[in-house]
Design a protein that fits this description.
Number of helices: 3
Number of strands: 2
Distance between the termini: 16 Å
Radius of gyration: 14 Å
Order of helices and strands: EHHEH
Strand content: under 5%
Organism: Streptomyces griseoviridis
Shape: globular
Strand order of the largest sheet: 1-2
Helix content: 25-40%
Protein name: Fe/B12 periplasmic-binding domain-containing protein
Low-confidence stretches: none
Length: about 90
């Protein structure tokens, strides 16, 4: 899904903590090292309640070879395949 209000090729965005529950996502890829899961707002996020969150190893974001990047993409592909659609806030719209 394209980020609302973003450029035609924008598929990710930084989100402030207070806006996390309104993220229209069925799957969240959490690529930061902050203690966000301890935040009550995080637990109210539909994708989190549905168990559809993936936090890859932080070091994997710094893939220095195509083989390393392939491991990251394989992990993402597996999470996308297993995610159930329709858990995000727009599901009822």
């Amino acid at each position: 899904m394209r980020v609302p209000g973003g450029a035609a090729n924008t598929y990710s965005q930084a989100v402030s903590r207070e806006n996390v529950p309104s993220v229209p996502a069925d799957l969240l890829v959490w690529a930061v090292s902050s203690p966000l899961p301890a935040n009550p707002l995080w637990r109210r996020t539909p994708a989190v309640r549905a168990g559809q969150v993936w936090q890859p190893e932080l070091a994997s974001w710094y893939a220095y070879s195509w083989a390393d990047f392939g491991v990251l993409l394989d992990g993402l592909a597996g999470r996308v395949r297993s995610a159930k659609a329709g858990v995000g806030p727009r599901a009822a719209v």
